[in-house]
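Re: the 237-residue chain
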Amino acid sequence: MPPRYGRVLLKLSGEALMGEQQFGIDPGVTTQIAKDIAEIQGLGVQVAVVIGGGNLFRGLAASAKGMDRATADYMGMLATVINALALQDALEQQNVITRVVTAIEMRAVAEPFIRRRAIRHMEKGRVVVFAAGTGNPYFTTDTAAALRAMEMKADVILKGTKVDGIYTADPMLDPDATKFESISYLNVLERGLKVMDATAISLCMDNKLPIVVFNLRTAGNLRRAVLGETVGTTVTA
């Protein structure tokens, strides 16, 4: 069965790398994510990843405590670079050639973001990990994921989370929350569902880019999502 999507952008939160810890990077979890990515790459799918930094530093939380918002956001962007390097290492241990590409230049550790070069990496079968968000404060890594997905001409954004889709309310808190199989962008915005922030959803809506929200912790889910099987919740027009 051929994959439904030829080129995907996987959005990972920084928290995804924590596992059961309260902070930092769990090597076991990172290895598992790398194996999942290697598996879909083996199907011939071109893969880009946008990674958050919330396991190391949260810009919003710091600015709420009085730190300058732009400074806090830049610190958060640097945290994503640490995560990207950890993921690169895990991927290369699975024999997947990987490039970390950053929106803030730091040539000693990663390539600067050049759109055509990043696309070329993907065409050559390399996994591209985008770090440092959009390079701008006041934008989340969700928005960075939407932006990079457009720039890379990805077929879909796969948002890996801790829950198996989008619910009417937080299923961790509300036992009566029910899951959507699919939902429209507008519905997500109107209901104020915490899938991705409004800027990211609007970008996807304007460019008709589908989003699949799924549980990253369930083995094989990434593969199922790429093959177009029913997994998680799909956000479309």
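The chain has a mean pLDDT of 95.
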